[in-house]
Every structure is written in structure tokens, then in C-alpha cells.
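#struct-help
A.M.: can someone run this one for me? Single chain, 615 residues.
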Amino acid sequence: MPCKINDYECFEWSSCSKEGTQTRNCRLKQRSYNCGDGSEQPQTSQTCTYAPPTCTSFYYSAWSECSKDGKQTRNITSKYPSDCEGGVSPVTTLSCTYSSSGQDKCAQIAADIKYWLDYDKGPINPDGFAYSPAQISSMLEARHNTVVAWVKKLLSLTLTYNCDSSTSNQNQQQTTSCSADTWSCGDWGTCSPQGIQTRSCNKTFNCSSVETASPATSQYCVAPNQPQQQTPTENLGIVNQDSIVKATVKLICPVNNTMASQGSGTIIDASGTILTNKHVIDGTAGCLVGFVDNYNNEPYFGDRQIADIYKISNDADIAVLKLRNPNNKSIASVDIAPGNSDNLRLGDQITTYGYPAKFGTKITYTSGDFSGVDGNYIKTTAIIEHGNSGGGAYLKNGTFVGIPTAVVKGDLNSMGYVLSINKINNFVNNSAIANNSGSNNNYSRVSSVLENIDLNTLNSLNLFIASNETGSDSQKVIAEEKKLVTKIDNNLSKRVNGKILLQVEKNGEGWYVYPDDKKKYYLGRPADAFNIMRNLGLGIKHSELASYLNAKFPSRLSGKIMLDVEQNGEAYYINPNDLKGYYLNRPSDAFRIMRALGLGITNNDIRKIGVGEVK
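D.P.: on it. C-alpha cells below:
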């Protein structure tokens, strides 16, 4: 039957554009409605009167020398916003005391030099408008070049008036000779029971011409009174330990040519299926696999064995990789099917295997007691360190009981968390797959960095270990941001609707402003971006999507995430700036693209936008 206007719900009109138009989005109140011929549709665009924004700030040239009539002037070099009118009145004229003496001239020159040096250190974006990181970098460079030019001109005048040379040399050195900030750091503190030590650092010199990273203020250390990890021996009494050692592999998962995640994995069948944690491969395109023949070997990567990401759980920290095995070699493996965590008894000994230390160390094990359960996790006193993630946990009879995954830190000691075999087998055998390339490896999805990376440089890679501590960092950021949100600014929310915002005053945290509710959603990790993409996406037919991809998407879809319902849910982000669709393939792609298109915003402004959360 035909739909009526009242069958739709419409959102607020967008701001009036320079072209004198504004739009809004509308949708059916009930998705089950099937509108037939003769249906009415609400108006989604209309004409409006564009009103240019009012000016809020200006950038000026330096003040001129004081004239004989007691005035000095300066020119407006730019204004913000660039197309603004009215608003704050610029100050271009100033009263002064005219003097022709050389001493007064030197004082004026020194004051002008100080003005320019202070100007170079000031905020580049005082009003908090959303600029991209590239725009901010360009503005910083342009400002510094202007400052250098003016200071050099003023320094040349110090020679004319025979001013104090020490002052001019110092100003020149501050302006033209720095290449990095200078920091002063204290000694590292005592190692805490959680294995972390800290120190304090203070910036002693700010080099305005470059942006340099601050030094590390925390690092991992060997916790006091903690037993050391050990290399496996032949007298542990573990059944089938030789197969366990050979089946436990080292994973190096490159993010780019200089950085890689590292972790452990367990081969679970003879063809090369590898079980690991999802957080080990987050943000990567696959992994290089290192093997050992016995516990005395260093992991060997020389044959460039590559594992593709095959399955990723959508509700647990589980990932399955497929080793490229073109010659169909039979590979040492462990059978995880017989494991059953329901058979565990308090006090049963649990032994973990993995590669917790830096690249090049041998396989290690720890052992401890079964201490209970917490949801899908087995609690144990066995030590789990960074890098153990993705390895295996076993009983003395050789039964695989789970993946060493997380650490819960108390005030005095820590408890290891092993993801239980019951949850793993349920996923491997029955669960829905969040990301599946099919029964065969789709090699085209693997980044070329895996194909081209120089194996001789693995030791020099900037290796990082994905966090294996419980308690989501993303959840902490979201909870903190909710507390900091001030009064909601609806006009600001409309202006950045559908865009990705980066907090330029913090660590570049990314947020996606969802067009339907105008709230911001946190893009913390690749998994967060992928989760938002899947949960906030809007379905679209393949034919309609294809027609838009060949041209531009309509403005009503600006900032939306579109899911191709006829092509395995392939996702595209519609960039409001150009109305083009950007393909969001894997979690790492979603994270990279959604952050690359981000706009800078201050903490003050970001906290005028409500916080959304995907449960």
C-alpha cells in the first residue's frame, strides 16, 4: 500500500551551504513497511539563505616602526574562518612614543623579536575548528617560516643600530638551530609487583620548528619475588611434550615495513591450521611463522612461512590462521578436540608454552595450579607474560585446555587467565565466523609487506606485544570521556556529523560521529573500528552501491557506513568531504582508513559532543 508522509521520521536540517541549500535524512518509522506505487515521500532538500560565519580571530604581520605622529600599524594576513564577515574587530593601529635614539630602536627590535618567538610557540588552532593533521602540520610549517623570515630581518637591524650582540645571537640560535625538544628524566623507579616501573620527565626546551615524541615514562621489568620463566626440559613428566614444543610457533605479524606485533600460536592440524589470540593479529594482514624442532632451537623464519588470517571470533579473543603449505607437508600438531575444561579439578597442574621474551629467545614454559573459572576463562597461578598470548596450556597428560590470554593484576600479585578449550572448540566447530576467507586461503588479501620484508631485518623491527591484560583500554577511554562531556553543542555536532575526529591535544584518539544520533564512537583499536563499522552500518543493494561507486554518493548518505547485503557485507565509508566510498575490508583497513580521513579537534570541543557506545 502507498506510504504517507506521516509514515516517515526525519532528522534535523543540515547547516545552510554556500550554494543556498540544506538537506536532511528521512527513514520509515517501521522497516517492515513496503511502500507501493503512489507513495508520498518527505522533502529532503530545500533552499535557504546562506549567512557567512562571523570572524573570531585574525593573524597579523609585525607592528611597523613608530611613526613621527606617534602611531604604528600592522596588516591582517589571514582571518578565521577564512570566509568570515563582521564579528571581532581587528586591531591594526596602536599609539606609540616616537624616538630616534639607537637605544630605543634596539629595545623596539628586541620586543619585536620576542613577539615573533612567542607567536611561533602559540596555539595554531585556538578556536578548536576541525583541521586534519596534515593541515595543522602545513600551518605550523608556514607559521615557522614566517617567523624565521621576520626574525632574520630584525636581527639584521641589530647590526645597523649596534645592539647587544649576545642577545641577537641567542635569539638567532633559538630560532634557526634547533632540531628536537630537550627533556630531563629522573631515574627509573622500583619495579612494582605488576612488573612495571616508572619515571618522571620534564621538557626543558621546546623546539617550535619540529614535533618530537616525548620519552617513555613507563616500562616492563622483572617483578620482585616472581618465579622466572624456564626453558622446557625432558623430565617435566608432560606426555607428548616433543609434539607440543614443535607445534608451538612464534608469530611475527607486520603492520608495516618497520613495525610488527609478536605473539605465539599452536598448530592444531597436520595441514598447518594455527590457533592464536585475536589481539595478537589485530591490525595486521597476516603473520610470519617461526618453527623449532626442539626446545634448544631459536625460532626459524628463513623459509618465509606465511600464515593468512582465516577465522576471527566475533565474541571471544580467538583467531585461526592458515599456513601456506603448497607442498602439503605434514606438520607437527596437537589435537585440541579431546580437551574439556569441565573435567578440571582445583589443584590440577597447568603448564603453558609460548614465546614471552623478545625476538630470538627460545620457547619457554611456566606451570601452576588450576585455581577456578571466570566465565570462559580458566584461572591459574601459572605465570603468563607479554608474548605468551596465543600459545597453549596443557595438563600433565598432554591434554590441551586453552590459550594463555590475559593477566588480572591485584594489589600484590597477578592471576593468569587461560581462554578455555570449551569456548575454543565451540567456535572452531560451530560458531558464526566474523571474518572468513573460505575453505581456501585468499592470498590476495595478504599485505605485500609479508612478501617483501627482509628476513635479515627481523631483529631490527620495532616489535610490540599486544596487550594481554584484562580490562579493555577502549572501555576505559569511553568511560573517562563520558565523565568529561560538558553541555552538548548541537550546532557543533551537526557541523561534524558523519566525520572522524582526532584529538590533537591528546594522543590523536579517533572518534566517529554517527549521523543518526550525532554521538561520537571511539576508534581505539582496529577491532573497535571494525566493530563500529559492522554495528552502525546501513544495508544497501549491490546494484545501487555499484552505481554510486562509479560516481558519487548522494548527500543523504554522507558520513554513513554502507554494507553490501548481497556481497558478504562488504563495507564502505562515505566521506562527507567528497561523497566517495572508501572500502573497509579487514579490521586493519577500517582502522587505517577511518583514521586517515580524520579531522583535528580540541579537547574542549570534542567534549561538547555526546558519547555513543556499541555494546
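A.M.: thanks! DSSP finds 13 helices and 33 strands in the chain.
D.P.: also worth noting: The two ends are 36 Å apart (CA to CA).
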